Amino acid sequence: MQKGTLFIISAPSGTGKSTIVGELLKRDPNICFSVSATTREPREGEREGVDYYFISRKEFNDMIASGGMLEHAEFCGNMYGTPKKAVFDRLEEGRDVILEIETVGAYKVMLNVPEAVSIFILPPSLETLRHRLEKRGTDSSEVIERRIAEAEGEIKKSRKYDYTVVNGDLEKAIEDISLVMKASKFLRKVNKETVEGVLEKC
Ligand code: ADP
Ligand code: 5GP
Q: Could you say which DSSP state residue 152 is in?
């Protein structure tokens, strides 16, 4: 069976990545979401084991020490990390896996899993980003300011990603990312094994 593809999706907080990823999951049952562990407090409506595993700092550090994290990073004072086993189990089953992670963790995955495909979602402007964070209404104004400050640094790192998509019109952004995910299956770093098998017969 052909293995699934690992996708890294990053975007400054408030750009719309959770909204977009939620739609991608609804539209393609072969895609699954890597549920991260975090030390952040749950937001209203967030579910344990669905949106995140909400754990203590001690539990987080124990997971790192036992080699259970594919990557981890600190963001705005909280720890976030990707539990490794679930990701590789799903890829072995032929499922595509989305890591919705910030840029420090994303760089680590790019280095350790070079065949992973990376997509950066940009907001149309920082002003739009601020409006979206305010409209979402889940963070205090102090947290919004911290997230905007982080956004400027994160946007600078977008050049390292394989693809960049702007989330202006939501439906267009979802379609663009779907297209990118399909096209990336034909990248040499993704389909090398299959193509080498065919090349032997050519
Ligand atoms: P992120 O996961 O990147 O932090 P969210 O998916 O929570 O961002 O989106 C932030 C807010 O912006 C939400 O209220 C969402 O409904 C809204 N949003 C997302 N995409 C768009 C868009 N293209 N146009 C307008 N609002 C959007
Ligand atoms: P939020 O608190 O808004 O849910 O997430 C804050 C940031 O942490 C976002 O950029 C989000 O993509 C990122 N993030 C979520 N899970 C992980 C993870 O497992 N690892 C890393 N490195 N970042 C993550």
A: H
